[in-house]
Amino acid sequence: MIIRRGKAIKNIKKIILCVFCFCAYTNGYGDGIADVYWYEAKPGKVAEVEALMREGRDIAVARGQATIVHKQNIGIGGENRFLWLDLFESYTQKAEQAYSDVGNIYAEDWKRYLDKFESSDAFATVASYSMTSLDDINPGNYIVQVYTWEPKPGEFAKSLAAMQEAKMIFEGHGYLIDIWQHGLGSGNYLQFVMLSTSREAQAKSFQALLEDQEWAPKQQDWFDKKTYGRLVESYEMTALD
């Protein structure tokens, strides 16, 4: 969406998720593309940033863009962090996005929003990167938990196979799982996304996972033995209403 360097905006491209609340968005294996933008509200500015993010999301959606904004609940930066995610079914669709920045020509409503965004001192840009889906995306509005892993050199396929095996176990306990690969702007990472429809459903799935004797040794492989690589980050978020 909006990449901000100091007070300037560079390469506006649009935001929502991790992956994640994919309203009216479907795709097949490897066909989904996401542009991800992280922002952090400054102290005392969370409500202002929430309103600004909602405004931009609504403009994007009105113009046909699949955009979602999430607010982080748990993770580095706490509840001050926001994730803006733009979703595309293909690179062709991305090239024809509803509010293209080609030649720095924007629709009037989007340009007014960019001017407002650029003049705001309520937040700072944290990161931006692209991702590609490695399985079917699950449409819906979820509580989203994300674990990002860096496979060992030369062992990407091994890590992905183990992640796909873990997906089967997790989905057997009620989670919906999306797997993504990071791209431009990030590292050679795999992202394991756990989706729950409610806090009650999340608690039920988590408890079942704790009691699963098949998962227990595999969890040690991932977290203790680091068999499949290094945990880069983890966080939880929910979509802004």
Write up what this structure looks like.
The protein has 241 residues and is an alpha+beta fold. It has two domains: 3-133, Alpha-Beta Plaits; 143-239, Alpha-Beta Plaits (2-Layer Sandwich). It is built from six helices and ten strands, in the order E-E-E-H-E-E-H-H-E-E-H-E-E-H-H-E. The chain has helices at 46-62, 91-95, 108-119, 156-171, 199-210, 215-224; strands at residues 3-5, 8-10, 33-41, 66-74, 81-88, 123-133, 143-150, 176-182, 190-196, 230-239. The chain has an eight-stranded antiparallel barrel. Strands 1-2 form a two-stranded antiparallel ribbon. Helix 1 (46-62) packs antiparallel against helix 3. It is globular, with a radius of gyration of 18 Å. 36% of the residues are buried.
Strand line-up across the major sheet: 3-5-4-10-7-9-8-6
Q: Supply Rg.
A: 18 Å
The CATH architecture name of the largest domain reads 2-Layer Sandwich
Beta strand count: 10
- What do the pLDDT scores average to? 85
The CATH topology label of the largest domain is Alpha-Beta Plaits
Helix/strand-derived category reads: alpha+beta
Question: What is the beta-strand fraction?
Answer: 25-35%
Name the shape in a single word.
globular
- Which residue ranges are poorly predicted, with pLDDT under 50 across at least 5 consecutive positions? 1-30
For the terminal residues, how far apart are their CA atoms? 19 Å
CATH class of the largest domain: Alpha Beta
Number of helices: 6
Largest sheet: 8 strands, antiparallel, barrel
- Helical percentage: 25-40%
- Helices and strands, in order, run as EEEHEEHHEEHEEHHE
